[in-house]
Amino acid sequence: MATTEQRDAIIEELKQGVIEFDEDQVKAAAQRVLADGMDAYDAIMNGLSAGMSRVGELFAANEYFVPEVLMCADALYAGLDILRPHVKPGTTAGIKGEVVIGTVEGDIHDIGKNLVKLMFEIAGFTVHDLGRDVPLEKFVEESIRTESDMVCLSAMMTTTMISMPKIIELLRKKNPNIKVMVGGAPVSDDLAKRWGADGYAADAANALSEAINMIDTLRDLKPIG
Fold this sequence. Notes:
10% strand, Rossmann fold, Methyltransferase, Methionine Synthase (B12-binding Domains), Chain A, domain 1, 2 domains, alpha/beta, single chain
């Protein structure tokens, strides 16, 4: 078993590996987590996720840009691939959920959507990614098929965001309790409220910040199970 000092050092290696988009460092640290009998969930949330939190801060401060964020995500996924199969059953039972996410019909911009998807996955949610240019009815069909808790809609053009209230209306008719988050540059908090959405993110940076805030809150929750 790793000592507290060893645990802290490995967690820091995971965190810095993500921040510095060093896949090799992340992989080596993740293997040490397993070799030293450390808690895989602890390593994911306080190492990998904490690293991505810092990346989000750098992104919001315009010190990192999309290419750097995507490389950081690659490093994070390299660690997740090693650690996720070793998360103890029940560790994330209190935060699991089903989320449908996609970019609305006519819109092919998906960077912001992909960043939000990443953070949901880190948190332990099952994400059903419909991709981009998604027909209105597909959001409804997939939310019903998967019995999802939340649907996240993304649009980066004013010509495509106008379909969002229609999607929300269709979703509410089928499941009044489903949570809906909307995001994208042309969307506003006022519009989101007017359409009846439960959450809003203005752009990729804000969407990422919203997701990271959620992850930070989840990290503070006591595991169930």
